[in-house]
UniProtKB/TrEMBL annotation:
InterPro entries xref list: HotDog_dom_sf (IPR029069), MaoC-like_dom (IPR002539)
GO terms, molecular function: (3S)-3-hydroxyacyl-CoA dehydrogenase (NAD+) activity; 17-beta-hydroxysteroid dehydrogenase (NAD+) activity; enoyl-CoA hydratase activity
GO biological process, one term: fatty acid beta-oxidation
Superkingdom to which the source organism belongs: Eukaryota
Gene source species: Letharia columbiana
Name of the protein this chain belongs to: MaoC-like domain-containing protein
MaoC-like domain: residues covered: 206-314
A GO cellular-component term linked to this record: peroxisome
SUPFAM superfamilies xref list: Thioesterase/thiol ester dehydrase-isomerase
Length: 340
């Protein structure tokens, strides 16, 4: 790491979650009624014994770690996507109440770089490694997010990229997830900073039919449900911010598309078992409007290392633009062909 801001470490942030947070997250990204391991809080011992007879249960969706650990969006200690426990409690922290997104995104400046406007920021790219299963509630334990800046890159007139690494860990103990994410500050470049390195690309194989297809119909209210996970950015709730940024109105959270695509891969190729997902990443290529239908296509590469197969994927709006590109996952694939 080198350049302005690189290596800067944010103050660690305590985060917490309840079982209801896990259930809300699963509902908000499209988990279905046949995936009770994600949607049903089995508090009754009789029902627990029943669920333990079902494959992969009880459990919760692995990207929930995208909820407590969103990457700092600007020179502040706030987190987004990210995914998704490592994707939302950085906004949420330990709160159960709605928070002021802009106010929470305005502390702890990154040294030696300009102060960027968090009202004009969108997701860039995100990768996540799932190292250890999270408990369904943090009650009885102390968890924290530890974040550091990997680089701040000046992309000229179009904007600035801040790349951050965030780990979700038990205080004094194990690391559960590690995420690397980038935030793109629209129209906030040309300050003389480094351009940054080129990124690795993971295109889908040419001329090969996808091995799995997952579709998800969003509703006009989908962003309003997803924001209850803790990301209360007005960009996803009211039209004015999106109109000012040239999107024509409110848009879906980038992490909604990211997390729902992750769910699609796990459901179609991994038997809806969180143990079958090791890594997941994608680039945010275009915004999604509430009401759009998302189609995720996935290709098995056959390349296996240490038991994990590389899967490539893209997500597009049905009949239109690609919204997630550079998609890659490491999985234990249990299903050879699937279409939902």
């Amino acid at each position: 790491m080198s350049g302005p801001g690189a290596g800067f470490e944010y103050p660690s942030q305590e985060v917490s979650w309840l079982k209801r947070d896990v259930l809300l997250f699963a509902n908000s990204i499209g988990c279905t009624a046949d995936e009770l391991q994600f949607l049903y809080a089995c508090l009754d011992k009789c029902h627990q014994r029943y669920l333990l007879t079902r494959p992969g249960t009880p459990s919760f969706f692995p990207d929930f770690s995208n909820i407590p650990c969103n990457t700092p969006y600007d020179n502040c200690h706030a987190h987004d996507s990210r995914d998704q426990l490592t994707n939302l409690p950085a906004f949420k922290h330990t709160d159960q109440e709605v928070i002021d997104f802009y106010a929470r995104s305005a502390a702890t400046p990154i040294p030696n770089v300009p102060k960027f406007d968090s009202r004009r920021v969108v997701d860039g790219q995100r990768s996540m490694k799932f190292l250890k299963p999270l408990p369904p509630t943090s009650v009885g334990k102390k968890f924290e997010l530890r974040s550091k800046v990997l680089g701040v890159y000046d992309k000229g007139k179009v904007g600035t990229v801040i790349e951050t690494e965030t780990v979700l860990a038990e205080k004094g103990g194990d690391v559960y997830t590690k995420a690397v994410g980038s935030a793109f500050f629209v129209g906030q470049g040309n300050w003389g900073g480094p351009k940054g390195p080129s990124t690795v690309n993971y295109p889908p194989p040419e001329g090969k039919k996808s091995d799995a297809v997952h579709t998800l119909q969003t509703a006009k209210e989908s962003a309003h449900l997803y924001r209850l996970n803790g990301d209360y950015n007005p960009l996803h709730a009211t039209p004015e911010p999106g109109q000012e940024m040239g999107f024509g109105g409110a848009i879906m959270h980038g992490l909604f598309s990211w997390n729902s695509a992750c769910h699609g891969l796990l459901q179609t190729l991994g038997g809806s078992d969180p143990a079958n997902l090791r890594e997941f990443e994608a680039r945010f290529a275009a915004p999604v409007k509430p009401g759009d239908k998302l189609v995720t296509e996935a290709w098995r590469t056959g390349e296996v290392k240490d038991g994990w197969e590389e899967v490539r994927f893209i997500t597009r709006v049905e009949g239109g633009k690609i919204v997630l590109s550079n998609g890659r996952a490491l999985m234990h694939c249990t299903i050879t062909k699937s279409k939902l």
